[in-house]
Amino acid sequence: MDDLLTYADVVAASDRIAPYVHRTPILRSAFFDALFDAEVYFKCEHLQRIGAFKARGATNAVLMLDDASAARGVVTHSSGNHAQALAWAASRRGITATIVMPHTTPQVKVDAVKSYGGLIVFCEPTLSAREQAVADIVAQTGAHEVHPSNDLRVIAGQGTAALELLQDVPNLDVLMAPVGGGGLMAGCALAARTLLPSMTVYGAEPETAADAAESLATGVLQPPPNTSTIADGLRTALGTNTFALLQSLNVGILTASEASIRQCFRHVLERMKQLVEPSATVTLGALMERPGIVAGKRVGIILCGGNVDVDRLPL
């Protein structure tokens, strides 16, 4: 995808954001090694700034703005981790971030965005309403839009998670990450395919929200899934850029049942003592349903985030 995004963009993003984000640790688990008959290496992005990998892409996008654009602020629509990430990244540069959120957004998420200095504009809980609200803000203020996943600067930033993982564990056989909008998976796949061209790369998503699997199988970009899943961070669809990258980088998509996602959430909490989002355990659920798929291999898994409402743990 030389005409879209390159490995050099990921490396540049890594250098750019290094002073601002954590180089997150890699953990092992004897329990998961035995469960999958593999060596599993967990890249702990739930320990990242704002509790998710989204800090990487948002920071890269904000830092790449010229001074004139930055002065007008940034805007996005998100009810999840990107909302917090962009608010946080903007505050680091001393600029305004306006976040369009559905009025149905849980208060805990609203409060988190406010705590990072974000200005919130509420809208109806539809994609069209969110996009229209962003367009109105851009027209009124000249703010610069930073899309949660389809922005190439965001994708490059997210790819730094895999770049770090492969620097620390350079001879992996398999790389896995969750897929929602596809920014994390696209950026990570680009890094993996460049450093280890023969590596197997899998994205994972809930079987009740398998739009990425259908998009890649049919070659036609599918709309956002109109369904519910415990992995609510993955109820978004691929964009044109992420779809093109996943196609060109030969990323396979695995799905996981709600029961498997929930069970692996509990395993991570009980066995690894790590609190992650259910979206982060979709990869593990997908492997648990496919005994032997990674047997005897060295597997890198991105634990994408840890922003869970502790009053509503999915146990």
Descriptive account of the structure:
The chain has 315 residues and is of the alpha/beta class. The protein has 2 domains: 7-52 and 151-312, Rossmann fold (3-Layer(aba) Sandwich), CATH 3.40.50.1100; 55-145, Rossmann fold, CATH 3.40.50. The protein is 44% helix and 15% strand. The chain has helices spanning 7-17, 30-36, 54-63, 67-71, 81-93, 107-115, 127-141, 152-168, 183-195, 211-218, 240-248, 258-272, 282-288; strands spanning 26-27, 39-44, 74-77, 97-102, 119-123, 144-145, 174-178, 200-206, 252-256, 298-303. It has a 6-stranded mixed beta sheet, with helices on both faces. The termini are far apart.
Quickly count the helices: 13
Supply the helix-strand structural class: alpha/beta
| Biggest sheet statistics | 6 strands, mixed
Mean pLDDT: 95
Task: Report strand order across the widest sheet.
Answer: 1-2-10-7-8-9
Overall outline: globular
Q: What letter string, H or E per element, gives the SSE order?
A: HEHEHHEHEHEHEHEHEHHEHHE
